[in-house]
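Help!! Second protein's tokens look totally different from the first
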Amino acid sequence: MFALICFVLAVLVSSFKSRSRLEAENAVLRHQLNVLRRKVRGRVRLTNGDRWFFIRLYRWFPSILQVLTVIRPETLVRRHRTGFRSFWHWKSRSRGGRPPIETDLRVLIRRMSIENPLWGAPRIHGELLKLGFEVGQSTVVKYMAKRRGPPNRGWRTFLRNHASHTAAIDQLVVPTIGFKLLYAVVIMRLDRRRLVWTNATTNPTAGWLARPVTEAFPWDQAPRYLLRDRDRFYGGIRPSPIESHGLRDHPTAPRSPWQNGVLWSWAKSPCAAPSRRTLDTNNAVRTHRSLHKASPEARPIQFTGTARARRASPPLRSRLGFRYTQLKQGRTFRSQLMQRSDDNQSNPWRLVRRENKYDCSYFTVRCDIVTHRGGQPRPYNHLHKKNFGIAVVPIDNDGSTTLIGQYRYVLDRFTWEVTRGGGKCDAPPIDAARRELSEETGYSADHWLELFAASASPGTTDAIAPGFVAWGLHSGQPHPDPEELITQRRVPFSTAVSLALSGEIADLASIAAILAIETRFRRGELPPDLAKLLRISA
């Protein structure tokens, strides 16, 4: 140790020596070190003081690793790291404190917090105390399952759960062109964003404010909650106008207009005005994102026609914009068929939103959100056909008819049917009937009679199948489609009726066409020349 102290003192004195003298002493010391290394064999034995000196000097000047010769640089670094670990191990030694928590108790705390998402740490801590576990509430907080939001239900949850039974009321001030102020009251039902009352006055009183609440909610349509802010403007309407209707007054928190955000944002919009026209525009025209881009009163969707715009308000309220409608240019075959229905029967269905799940050139699978008699919106899946299927029964000059046989892929069997085909809904069905009769049988007819236009399955699809009978035939060469492998079978018409009744003809449109001809023939409702042909085969 004495030698080490002397060495330190020599180092301090060396700072006062000249540079050339220091270089000479370093050269002498290095040469002496080389002489000693030739005499010493094996590892150099160092004392603790030597080790401490090298480690401390290494921490101050890491570059000394390049001039170490007595020991290897890796040894010095390893001893430095070992000392570092030992120091911090000693510093972090256990000094007693909180006892460890058993694994089963930690699992129980986490399971209770997951199974009861509305429980906080005090509730879980109380349950554990009743179960005989001595544990602190801070420990319960530490081992609870972490949640993204607060455990209690917030304001958004309340509005979402009670929107169908909640109405909102708000008051707004409207300046007039004469620099006067109109005090308006607006009431909205939150379930469909429908305005139920709007009015304004220059002198608002408690009696006047009670009138909107009384007239906006009939006895059988009153909501459960009335949402409002804490303005003193509403102080005079309690308790009689609200509580007499069974309403629960639900004021928002102070300085929290976002809690009545639906009506508050509407009141700040440019479309807000206390007029009947504004109320009708909001309810019947305007679309809302919260209603899946529908209007509060289920504005119907117009699929056909040309879009035209008309202004929805007088010029002074031009910022309300336009209302767009479809002007019908002509009637398609489907619209003509719908025109034949009973107009005295009102439609109880209202389309809210439409989504196409699958679309091809023949049909579209639709998922409509509809309401029935003003009820709750619900999905209705159906198949929309882009063309119609026709059925043609050709009657030859000897009273016989031609049946078409082919293997149907969907049914996975061979079937007999009359001439079948399809056509676009925007084209006359008689054109498609002439084309299909020529393709499958080669016939052309002088006379045609439409028998019916039936719906195949009105509950699941809007497919329409018109039926025709053709006579006055002229033979020709059939030219079916390349993927159609058809077989012709010429039978008397009475035999075709028997095949339809026995089930050998399974196609619904074919059966309906054959039996319609047979029924009209027995009633005497067919043209005389066609009835004469059928008597031949009878």
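Here's the second one for comparison:
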Amino acid sequence: MTNTRLVRSDRRALSATPAGFVTSAADREALRGLWATIDLAPIGICHFDINGHFLLVNQRLCDILGYSRKQLLDRTFQEISFTDDLPGCVAVLTRLVTGDIPTFNHVKRFVRADDSVVWTRISVSPVRDDKGELAFFTGIAEDVTEEHRTAVARGEAEERLRVALEASRTGTFRWDLRTNELAWDANLDALFGLAREQTVHTLDEFLALVHPDDRSRVAAACKLCARDGAGFDEEFRVTRADGAERWLCDKGQVFMDSGGRPLYMTGACIDVTGHRRIELDLRTAAQERERLLTLEQDARRHAEEATALRDEVLGIVAHDLRNPVHSILMSASAMLEPGVTSDQRRRHIGIIRRTARGMDRLIRDLLDVRRLEAGTLEVRMDIVDVTGLINETVEGFESEAQSRGLTLACDLGIGLPPVLGDHDRLVQVLSNLIGNALKFTPRGGHVGVHAHHVGSHVEISVTDDGPGIPPRTLARVFDRFWQADRRSPSGAGLGLAIARGIVDAHGGHIWVESIVDHGSAFRFTVPCVPPEHRFRAIDATHPAAPPPDADRAL
């Protein structure tokens, strides 16, 4: 730097120096060295007078403001100040002149020669002469444009983050792992249903807000974070002050010191109650679909089984009808043959009658099943003598038992009370049970009929020492068309289903007990006649309820 470049400032600056201060060449050389140092300084330096005219400027200030040295020395700082910032600067300079403040530090804008705006951090101080009068101002300027842009960008980013957090209802927190102190924002208070003055400050206060069923799990996860620096990722419930239960998802990251020790954890928390409900609804819907699918598959399987069973039984029924019809035709044809004697004719008539009765029983069974399915099977209720009914029925099977080599015996309680029921229908039930017992008990076996008074009912049972029924088929013995042995079917398999329908219509219950190779016991109950009604007849018709598994197979 030459004396020519600093001539203007040289004269004005010297006016502020003590008289005779610059008296030698050495002093002048020292002054030039000082100015050279100022000119090369990395910050902008200037002197300006009370009117704002620049007296001295260094190169760095020229670079900051975008003017040459000559342009600046011909201008005032007011001319290049950003308009909005100027009033404040003038007011502060006035206070500097009056001595109200010793110095002034401020961030202000200047308009560069190319009309761009530069942000500066300035420091202005007054310089006074020996008499204390203001000589000039010294100013230091630093370009903080990039710093300002960074601050603006940071502020905008923080504002965007704040808006995003509020819009998404995301709460943030910071947990000091050394002091156990918690700091969180208003959004987190809202998630926990807390007023701002109720905000928590420690981990223990936070855990107290967690649902009791989730608290131990969350506490264990926090302990792991504090001990090992593990990340935090938990979903838990909180019960708010208004009683509402909400699900929160909390995620946090632990930061370590240089020695690898956990310092603090920062994280965010959101309400996932809606997601949880959707997941629950989806799981419920999936379970319902699975249930319906299982029901549909079971229904299809049962329908297929019912269809197969129906076809099989129809074949049996057709066989059972075809054989009797064939017997009737053969006997009728034989009666028409010439030379048939009276004894032969009577024998053929007997065959026709017995065969017709068998066909009639089968047809009546089919009709009874149909009535049961439709709920129209009628039972005519009356007072029935149980002892007489059982003896009458057993007598009808004595000859068959003898022909099969079986013992048929009765064991009836003494003084059995009368029951309320349909005599003929009860005979039908008991006959079916005795007939089955005789049919499946091997020669030399025993079949027993028992009756006992049990509470408000009479329990009637038919026992045998036959082969018994396997456990896997016990639940199906009262199904329509069920056969104990499908390899050698006997009958249409309708008797037990009809028996159950009749017993149900009487308000009783029928069941079976069986042990393989030890026999079976079929039992049913019939309600006793109330004592006040035992001496007057009751004649009422009651439709029998359809069996629970009625599926219109016929």
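Reply: Different proteins will give different token patterns, so don't panic. The chain has 17 helices and 18 strands.
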